[in-house]
Amino acid sequence: MNFRRATGLLVPVSDLPKVFRGVFSFRYFNSVQSECFSSAYLSDDNLVVSAPTGSGKTGIFELCILRLLARLLTPEGLFSQPRGALKIVYVAPTKALIQEKVKEWNEKFGSKSLGLICQEVTGDNEFINVKDLQDTDLILTTPEKFDSTTRRCRDQGGAGFVGDIALVLIDEVHLLNDTRGAALEAIVSRMKMLSRYPELKESAISRIRFVAVSATIPNIEDLGEWLMAPPRAVKRL
Asked: Where in this chain does the record put each Helicase ATP-binding domain (predicted)?
């Protein structure tokens, strides 16, 4: 049993490598984030989290991002990022939410901190070239836009930037049950299919991780079984 979970202790940010601590402006993760710390940061398992609005689900996403970036730490604890080598895709239903995250994550992960390149890919970027995404580290997009972008890449006969995707973060995952859920279902299925391609077995996508959160997931176990295939960590908090 996890000692902190058993005793109700909060996980300190100082448990992270020094180079990552500046991402967070507080000293301790809250109870929800502490409960998910081992699943988010100490594991590469897929994860589904259902927790109330305002409970810190963005912090769980950020721990998963840092888990991926930890692969690039030097033995001395320094961070070295080959541009675009390990891509993160954040999928959210609205441009407003995406633009909020672009601003927030540019400050936390951008050039003045860890040096990641963040790029919004929505309907406002109607003529984006998939080649422009080669050097992007963090792609923030809507289900519909990412569906069309990855489908176009596939139809052009190449994996393009898709082979570098190592982490997919899905916000408001309950929208699978909405009329817009088809696009989200399509991109998850496409990523899972590509991860099994023999020609991509040496690429980042072959070990792709899915992390999905929502405030309202009535059938969280069913969602975990489909999304995670098989489910590895499902938490209702």
From this structure: 38-235
Q: How far is residue 123's CA from residue 110's CA, in Å, rounded to a whole number?
A: 23
Question: What is the value of pTM for the model shown?
Answer: 0.89
User: Which domains are delineated in the chain?
Assistant: 11-236 (3.40.50.300)
Residues 6+ apart with CB under 8 A from 72: 79, 80, 81, 82, 86
Decide: 116 and 81 in contact? Cβ < 8 Å: yes
Q: Residue 214: phi, psi to the nearest 5? A: -170, 160
What own/partner pairs with CB < 8 Å and gap ≥ 24 does 195-200 have? Answer: 197/159, 199/159, 200/159, 200/163
The rounded distance, in Å, linking the Cα atoms of 10 and 150 is 40
Residue in the block written with tokens 């721990």: 63
